[in-house]
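Co-fold these.
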Amino acid sequence: MLKKMAKDQGIQEQLRLYLPDLPKGPLDAYRKKATFDWRRMKLAYDNLNTLKLKHDIWSFMESHPLFKHTEATRVLDEERHIATKRMYTIYNEQFLRFEKIAEDPKSFQAESEALFMFDSSLAVKISLTFRMFSNAIQGNGKSHHYPIIEDVEKAKIGGCFALTEVSHGSNAKGMRTTATYIPEKKQFVMHSADFEAAKCWVGSLGKCATHAIVYAMLISKGKNHGLHTFVVPIRDPKTLKPYPGVIVGDLGEKIGLNGVDNGFVMFNNYHLPKEAALDKLGGVDDNGDYQTPFRDPSKRFGAALGILSGGRVHITAISTYYLQKAIVIAIRYSAVRKQFGPENAKEETPVLEYQQQQIRLLPYLAATYAMKIFSVWLSCLHINMTISSYVGEDANAAARGIELHALSSAVKPLFGWTSRDGIQNCREACGGHGYLKAAAIGDLRNDNDANCTYEGENSLLLQQTSNWLLNVWARRETLTADDSPLGSLQFLQNVDQLLQEKCPWNSVQEFMEPANLIHAYKWLTAFMLKMTAEKVALLKGQGKDNFSAKNESQSYNAVTLSVVYGENYVLNNFYKAAQEFDDANCRAVLLKLVALYGSFLLEKHLATLYIGGYLRGEQGLCVREGTLSLCRDISPEAVALVDSLAPPDFCLKSVLGMSDGEAYKHIQSSVMTYPGSMTRPEWWRDVVYWQSYAPSKL
Amino acid sequence: MLKKMAKDQGIQEQLRLYLPDLPKGPLDAYRKKATFDWRRMKLAYDNLNTLKLKHDIWSFMESHPLFKHTEATRVLDEERHIATKRMYTIYNEQFLRFEKIAEDPKSFQAESEALFMFDSSLAVKISLTFRMFSNAIQGNGKSHHYPIIEDVEKAKIGGCFALTEVSHGSNAKGMRTTATYIPEKKQFVMHSADFEAAKCWVGSLGKCATHAIVYAMLISKGKNHGLHTFVVPIRDPKTLKPYPGVIVGDLGEKIGLNGVDNGFVMFNNYHLPKEAALDKLGGVDDNGDYQTPFRDPSKRFGAALGILSGGRVHITAISTYYLQKAIVIAIRYSAVRKQFGPENAKEETPVLEYQQQQIRLLPYLAATYAMKIFSVWLSCLHINMTISSYVGEDANAAARGIELHALSSAVKPLFGWTSRDGIQNCREACGGHGYLKAAAIGDLRNDNDANCTYEGENSLLLQQTSNWLLNVWARRETLTADDSPLGSLQFLQNVDQLLQEKCPWNSVQEFMEPANLIHAYKWLTAFMLKMTAEKVALLKGQGKDNFSAKNESQSYNAVTLSVVYGENYVLNNFYKAAQEFDDANCRAVLLKLVALYGSFLLEKHLATLYIGGYLRGEQGLCVREGTLSLCRDISPEAVALVDSLAPPDFCLKSVLGMSDGEAYKHIQSSVMTYPGSMTRPEWWRDVVYWQSYAPSKL
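Predicted complex below.
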């Protein structure tokens, strides 16, 4: 007992070390209402190690001139310049060495969070230039490729990852970049037939990268062996000039993430040594005959799928960061923004007290916690799977890989969309001032937007999940626990009996019980799968081919199925984490958040619950009433809940969301220090003497 | 008969004059599938006069160097500079003289469309600087103010409109700018207590305006008479320097509309002559005693409300323009973007053929037509009301004004949100390339975003509608046609009997009949009103005061009620316009769009239809199936439908959406001509020699 107290006190001291007191001010009233310790709440997804890591990175940034915020948006070239300098500066510090990730897999996402919270372009670039490039060589290359990894580790060269082509993205089979083997020269000739075959959207290729991992059709002896990877020199590392045969350029401005120099590249009969092929998993021998070490291709394919899920796994975290920042800004501002009030009241009411403001923000606050806990868990799972794939056999690797592929193909879209909608709600909930660039919400929306289309456009990616689920449904009688090492198929337990059920609850209280919400979600997931399977069967029964039957069972069926499957898993993961959290005060609030997240999700599918016969009469009203009543319950906790999620103010960079709550003072300061804000424009004569360029006809 | 044919041919010739043939190319296949004439379809909302006006404006722009598009985003100061020069250049041309608006009220929106389609900042600025300013003086001033109108008409001065304060937007009663009358000097002293009382978000004030319409609390003899308007000199029209006592500046960057110089202003005991008061409707006499000409304040209040709806009426049109551009881009690109296809197919399939692509785009195509037709109608209604208020009595002016206030307070949010969601769907439906700045969808989203919060944050504004509807519900037994000159209360006919009904349809075909969809919407609107009224009554019965009862009946009730009321009116308006359209081929397609719009709207409220007992069993599935089947029917018409909506290519400025359908060629050209895209950056040494600023620790 004493030991536990001493340990507790040690934790408390360290928490205070990494998380200093927040400034006093207009937010105090709400902070006092909270029933839990905001620092302790961090341990729902962080640990002392990750808190220290983030603290170290942020302290470094805060003391470094390169990491100072400027009010005015930079022109494109300057955006790219500063993102590049920040990248090398941070990488050089080696805050998280590779071996530390294995010791504490959570540290991987902590580092990523620290970077994304400050500057998403910096974070994206560092990951592309160093990590993704090395991983691709590690996974697909042989020992003679390892010197390239050493070069990139020492930042002598910089990498990038070239898969997408101008006219082919998701349909990888349609890609047209070729690498033709010439046995006489022991060389490949890489070629792009035209601009439509150019590799594009390659992050860090526009200005910086010296080498690219290129996916190209391997052609040997007249036969196309499909997509293979090559490591291709693009620019001379000493001059940054492109090599002859390489036409490389920058894609220009994007909606967001403008510090990242996305580029395109075309190859004009570009000769590469045979060693450019990353051929561990398959390639040609010196004579041009195809060789592969695979014995049981299907199992290896499954394991490979799981590791390739890395991009999607990372995006679930990235989406979460953006929403995390937006919700902090919107809730803090809603707590200090006062408007209207009861008749004869002395003060106006904080807008956070209004029902419609609560319903727009608090379900997304709950979602942020669910997503945060889930994405950290998923990232650790993926790291552990990658490590075990390096060190040796894992009996369940194939099944786990396949399930992770399906799960990550559902949650990547789900989180991208949840952030999209949550950020938009935050933006509107901040009213007119939310439209200020200095409020910072617009940039979050613009950056998150990429999450909805990269690594697979969301709607399309969801087919990966629904295809698997439909396959599983067909063999549901014979499923075993081995088919679902991650437990995402638990909703299929006794599914026939489950689908006979009618919802037995008739009070708000019953509906809002987390266990009941979770049960209702189980029913919904099973029903969506059954309905989609029946729709496909119906279409095939009408004589449609596989392609048409799949196509015509997407909307309201397969697409929704995949989303619901993802939601169901995330909800269960959140519930489990909340129940297991050891601090009782935090746990109580987390369980309310679980209920709010669950009821908010369920409300969106009410119509389907009626169509499927699970709900009847006015039961749906209980879900709506319950959602509103949970919002009311959680509103006094909201400010402390976002204090726990918030990065330091210098990362948030929002006049509305600073930890001191002094929104109007920050607006004033920002507005008045914006370059040129108080002075007459240089071009004032074009206002007064407009006739000088438009001779008056008035 | 012959006469009709001759007239028809005359129309056809003029249509061809203003709407030249579209270039041949990859879109031809879809264009050939259309069953109607895309030029003729324009007449659903345009006429030959408005087509000529737009043609004249666009021809002028196309031939003028100031209206050339540049690839790279300008820095803020340059954005403002060019928007200002374009404003004077266009205004000087006087494309639409005031008297022409009375002759053809549709011309007002045609001019606005022509400007918004090219550059939204230009359009906003021209409207604020000239029209809104003049209108405010016309409406609230006396004859001695009219010289100011002449000055602004000759562009000797420039106006702006200052209502919102830093800490008070929607709550006008809380505003704190004061104008205190000093009888000895016959002057007002205007004062802002602090930055929170500064007027802000004032369009065109940041850099340009010389005069402002300012709303301030009129104080005389120690008494606060509430908000009144004043015309206040801000800057010297000869030098653009602010007058002493005026602290004026620019709000800096925003999420969008960065050509508009939104500003703020504080007054420091700034003395104004008594004539600064725009006191036609009330003010102080020389002695400081309050005088007003009103006899029956309630009637005049109603009429005034109707005229003040102008801002909201205009925003319904503005939201429509943005969606109009986005849907053109997304549908044209979806028709030429090919990806995947049936096994063994020779060509890949255009993505427009995929069900999930259709459901994301085609309902918004239908919505665009509904919104276009409605917003033109609403604009004409508002112009006619304004004119009749100038020329004399209109027996129904008060009731019409009140109803227009309620209706515009519903459709402004509805259209802002529909565009928000529609544009986002367009953005995602364009996949990765939609993230290019040159695709132009990001800017549309950023510009439209303002529509969701200005002239009243959407959720808040909807209370204006629901408050009126609840009031109407309480006296529904005694309503007459005079209560609803615009017919928006028709859903209350025989309402008690209506609400007893159960939905009688069980087939997709029955559900998709426009008249049936419209009937279902009538039921839904009535039910939402009844449910909200009962909720308010219940809360009051629990002892809640008016403020709390209203607050706690917003989400899922009053907010949804107002939206549904707006949707119901727009749907009916669309149906009527489609039925009355004289071209049979166009009419048939328009009626399909009516059905799609109706079923798409209804689907969003399926759960409420079940809760209210209107639907039961699997009826909801018919609505979903019907929506999908309408999408399939309309997809061959989609390209011609957007050809009809599309502005000229130089306005669209989208590499994905040009009328020749050559998306990849335009991407190539845009990417390769972007300044610096193919060259090594100036800062290449910071990549190669990064150790120069970050001494290596690697």
